Amino acid sequence: MNDIIYVIFGINTLAAAIRITTPIALAAMGGAFSERSGIINIGLEGMILCGAFAAVLGSFYTGSPWLGVFLSLLLGGFIGALFACFTIKFKADHVVTGVGLNILALGATTYLMQVLWGCKGSSPNVKGLSEVSIPIIKDIPVIGKLLGTHSPLVYIMFLLVFAGWLLLFKTPLGLRIRITGEHPEAADTLGINIKGIQYFSVILSGCLAGLGGAYLSLGQLNWFSMNMSAGRGYMALAANIFGHWNPLGCLAASFLFSYTDALQMRLQSLNIGIAHELIQMLPYILTIIVLAGAVVRSRPPAALGEHYETNK
Amino acid sequence: MRVVELKNITKRFGNIVANDAIDLDINRGEIHCLLGENGAGKTTLMKIFFGLYSCDTGSIFLNGKDVEVHNPGEAIKLGIGMIHQHFMLVDRLTVAENIIAGQEPKKGIFINFARAKKDVEELSRRYGLKVNAERRIEYTSVGEQQRVEILKNLYRQADILILDEPTAVLTPQEVKDLFTVLRKLKKDGKTIIFITHKLKETMAISDRITVLRDGKKVGTVNTSATSPNELARMMVGREVVLRVYKKAGHPGQTIFQTQNLCATNKRSHLHLKAINIAIKRGEIVGIAGVEGNGQLELEEALMGLREIDRGKIIVNDRDITNYSTAKRRALGMAHIPSSRLKRGLIKSFDLEKNIILGSQWSSHFADKGILAQNRIKKYSREVIDNFDIRCSDSKEIISSLSGGNQQKVIIGRELSGDPQVIIAAQPTRGLDVGAIEYIHNLLLKMRDEGKAILLISAELDELKSLSDRIMVLYEGEMIAEGDTNRFTEEELGLLMAGHREGVLTDVGA
Questions:
Q1: Boundaries of every domain in chain A
Q2: CA–CA separation, B311 vs B313, rounded Å?
Q3: CA–CA gap between residue B289 and residue B460 (Å, rounded)
Q4: Which residue of A178, A186, A192 is in closest CB contact with B89?
């Protein structure tokens, strides 16, 4: 019994949750930007996957994991631009385009992995990002163990979430993004460049999801494997809704999902007499319950998923 | 001194010519009304001026200079502001955020919210446009939203303000306040272009009037040198009887009543409170009130489209409270819904299908579950002829008809089956003078034939000229009731705004 309590409230579980949160929170915030501007982004999953792949590719060829991270931002942004082009310029259905993108990303990365490295399941090991310790924080009891030593991308994620919140709610650009997603016609009559705002938001969304992917491959494992994102993009989408399209909310929601995931993994190793399969269901059951409760109350941007035609 | 000159503006949408070589001159510092029926091209013309539409031919001169306006951003820079018929406000943002968006005061890279609030409050004081800068739009009244729209344009230092049908959503008192503000703006040197189809307002507020009809300019007149009758003739292109002729009523026995009807709209937190309405044969009872005070809920509750909490609805001594909508219709209740395209018609269906909508199972139109095309066609033809619906063919798609003709399709369908009780909600909203005249006369004819009619309307003129009795609905409650001639327009206006004091009321207990 003590074991169980230790696992539930233990620092190790929480620290693991922070690690699991990182890619989901980054992608969720990407989703928030995209959807705040009115573009539904189901393509987060594919963007994460491409980011993960690009990071390994970059590290493999240059030997520098940071250049890998940079490449993941670049490719994520590029995929975002592609997605934006289809949904904004050609007015394709957002959901269909997103799903298509996800399938494309899965196929393309798997294929390229075979072409480049000749292996089917996963890429060769590359140089990953080594963990860093924050000098003073790491010596504080509890908190030090929780936050003291992580991959640099974890800290970058925290900074980006806060910066994203500031951008969305405290700056002129953020106000314009929110107006575009709520009432594009109003934005138009205010002289706001709707398409520019949407391109910016969707490309930013791609960069953030790509960065989340880089963390998966270079921050945790140092290699790329087929379908590495494994549904995190969809988790991010859910976290974005549960977090009310707010970067801080996205982080909190991602953390909740990740915490149950971490808990599930640790409970399995305890052998507490409950079937593994049931314990594995935990995060999903919680996700369903939380979302069922939250979605009723949450209110998406009013013009989400619509195409606005300016100057008929 | 000319501040705006539009020359030879033409704009086509597909085959329709919305603006046909229109010239328009506006003097500095005047209030210029753009008058015309719905679909005359007023809004299109102004949207071209404001950069929302591009014109096919024509040019725009501002202060004598040839300018090109490609988008609203450029219009704003040129000092042009437009207050749209459907407000361009974001519900979830505050008043101040809505006003500053696009031209935000900054502190470093951030928005200076304190400064924004101060600026808004200053402007608000200067022009007497009372708003609460920090309240979210979703919690403000329609009148306040309009003030926000005006402030939004003043904040952008607009010299020329275009207002598109600004009075449609206001109570008579709010209209008065708006006119006071407009006169103040005029005194301040602003030029105002006022789009409307209401003659009375045009006469009250404007210096000059330009009338459009079917996309063409009919002429420009000085307000002091014209009359409502001349304007109506210019608008419609023929003589119009502005007042309908109503015979004295001969009401029979009561065939429709509600007893303590209560209903709740959970979303808007509006409660209908113990509504008692009784309508006799051959009588029109008008429900006055500003939109959003329970009209929609009442309409829905009566037709079985909204669950009721308590109370009874009785038609012909039969308690129909728990009857389905279909059963109510079968019993002789007809419904002209307030939202024409949401509840009244299926836009993408043709006339025939819309005309038999609701009766598609009846043996008149179907044999063993298969639609009888020939009979439907024949019946549709009859309805189209009887109700003077202008269309090319009974197979024409509803969305290609004008608003007036769409409304006639609904009315044709609803009134063809010899109904006993007619619930007519906003039956002439958004229609032109010609169509309004037709519908008013039709409703009076139905009344004289002995139908019981409930007329829910936001137009005081309409209520006064058609109703035998008027009830005033305010925040879900009937706060006044009486014979039509017992209320002055002023009193009705006050009642609609919720002022009960000092006004004659004889609400039944």
A1: 2-125+135-295
A2: 7
A3: 9
A4: A186
Please give, rounded to a whole number of angstroms, the shortest distance from the CA of A310 to a CA of chain B. Answer: 7
Q: What is the DSSP letter of B108?
A: T
pLDDT at A296: 66
For chain B, give every domain's residue range: 2-236, 254-496
| pLDDT at site B509 | 34
Structure tokens that stand for B377 in this block: 């066609």
What is the Cα–Cα distance from B135 to B89, expressed in whole angstroms?
A: 13
A36 touches B at CB < 8 Å:
no
Bridge-based pairing of strands B110-111 and B65-67 is: unpaired
CA distance A169 to chain B (A): 9
Residue B37 and residue B236 in contact, taking contact as beta carbons nearer than 8 Å: yes
Hey, do B2-236 and B254-496 end up sharing a CATH topology, with the first three levels equal? yes
Contact at 8 Å (CB) between B240 and B199? no
Predicted pLDDT of residue B503: 52
| Model pLDDT, residue B458 | 84
Below-50 pLDDT ranges, chain A: 312
- By residue count, chain A amounts to 312
Contacts of B179 (CB under 8 A, 6+ apart): B204, B205
According to CATH, the topology of domain B2-236 is: Rossmann fold (3.40.50)
Question: Which residue ranges of chain B lie beneath pLDDT 50?
Answer: 507-509
Nearest CA distance, A195 vs chain B (angstrom): 13
Q: Is B102 on the interface with A (CB under 8 A)?
A: yes
pLDDT for position B507: 47
**pLDDT of res. A275:** 83
pLDDT at A17: 93
Nearest one of A41, A29, A311 to A188, comparing CA atoms = A311
The answer as to CATH 3.40.50.300 being correct for domain B254-496 is yes
CA distance B186 to B27: 12
From the list B71, B82, B152, the residue facing A311 with the nearest CB is: B71
Q: How far apart are the first and last CA of chain B?
A: 61
- B322/B184 Cα distance (integer angstroms): 54
pLDDT tens readout for residues A46-88: 999 999 999 999 999 999 999 999 999 999 999 999 999 999 9
Residue A238 neighbours by CB under 8 Å, 6+ apart? A253, A257, A287, A291
Q: Which residue of B has its CA nearest to A191?
A: B73
Contact A178 B90 (CB under 8 A): yes
What Cα–Cα distance (Å) separates residue B147 from each residue in B135, B165, B319, B458?
13, 14, 46, 20
CATH class in words for A2-125+135-295:
mainly alpha
* Separation CA B207–CA B223 (nearest Å): 5
Per residue in A196-224, pLDDT (tens digit) is 999 999 999 999 999 999 999 998 889 99
Other CB atoms within 10 A of residue B387 CB: 21
Q: Which residues lie below 8 Å from residue B109, measured CB to CB, with a gap of 6+?
A: A171
Are A183 and B52 inside 8 Å of each other by CB? no
